[in-house]
Amino acid sequence: MNDITICFTQTPLHLAVVTQQKEAVEALLEAGADASLTDRHGNTALHLAAQQNEGDMVALLLKHKAVADFANVPNTAGLCPLHLAVLSNSLTSLRALLRSGANVEVQELTSGRTALHLAVEQDNISLAGCLLLEGSADVDSCTYNGSTPLHIAAGRGSVKMSALLMAAGADPHKENFEPLFFREDESCAVDKEEEEEEEEDEGYIPGTTPLNMAASSEVREILTGKEYRPGTVPVPVPPEGDMRSLTQESKRALCQALEEQAGSWERLAQSLGLGILTSAFRLSPSPASTLLDSYEVSGGTVRELLEGLKTIGNSRALTILQEQGMSEQKPHTKISTQELSENVMELKLGPHEEGGVCDSGVETSFQNPSLFVSESLCGHMDLHQSPAQAEA
């Protein structure tokens, strides 16, 4: 009963693999499910598992000898599970198949490419390295037209892949079965006598080597034996801001103020240019805290934070930043209350200004928030006074 076929000739085992139900797969195999049955594309359960990024399903299936026997069987497209693992960029599936004894030299049926040819075509260094080091793949394996993986890498101008294959012992002078044609002007220079000799004896027509196919001078240098030296990638230096000057107490108070007002931290993220990370911030127990940490890492400044808070109209957060944040900063970054007040005043837009654009490039409306903040901060208290004086 477990081998009954349904839509698209898929068996329950196929469906259990596709839906990644490991317990169901195990139960079906224990009950005697036929692992040789294929869907309409000729895929066994192992073929389908090899196309998944996670290799757990492949490893589970290969524990059963009845499944492992089909590791080298092609589907209707001529692809074996090993080929599908490479095409799906699944390193774990590839390793599981190699450990189970899958034939690393098995060729797909359309042009005779091995898994190594396919990895080179995708310029996938990790998969090619796995096939060479863990699978002991033949670096000079040939397709039906005699092309090796190095022919492909050289023809596509892949410097890193060419260097890897050369390090594994690839032959840059190996000819394929494609004749190396002369250019038209060179062929015209052949005299009549030589043409007559060729007619009598066709002679040797050379094939094309990886050197002939080298698509760049860098690849040619690698193929002629020059040592490959990867370019030095400069390590990006993170920008330095002054967010570290805020104390933990100030940050906690800011986070509370941002999370109490609905939508406040989301609008602040947009204003600070971090809107694209909003979904990630929501996964945190304290989205506002994660937002401030990310802003600090990106080199954010207190001044820009002030502008962002003013833009979203969160007067409580602005007041917290003014009252608590600055008095506990380090000496070399200390900002007086007066300077902070001046910053707030400088950021305030007049009633005649209708809008603007933040540093992040996000267009926002400033009119209402500016009036709201202006009234809350300036209309009822002098910014140069302490809160106690203002209340008095």
What does this molecule look like?
- Keywords: ANK repeat, Repeat.
- Residues 192-203 have a biased composition (Acidic residues).
- ANK repeats lie at residues 8-40, 41-73, 77-109, 111-144, 145-177.
- A hairpin with a 5-residue loop joins strand 1 (355-357) and strand 2.
- This protein folds into 3 domains: 1-102, Serine Threonine Protein Phosphatase 5, Tetratricopeptide repeat, CATH 1.25.40; 104-178 and 206-230, Serine Threonine Protein Phosphatase 5, Tetratricopeptide repeat (Alpha Horseshoe); 243-325, Death Domain, Fas, CATH 1.10.533.10.
- It has 392 residues and is mainly α.
- The protein has 24 helices and 2 strands.
- A two-stranded antiparallel sheet has the order 1-2.
- The radius of gyration is 34 Å and the shape is flat.
- The longest helix has 13 residues, at 248-260.
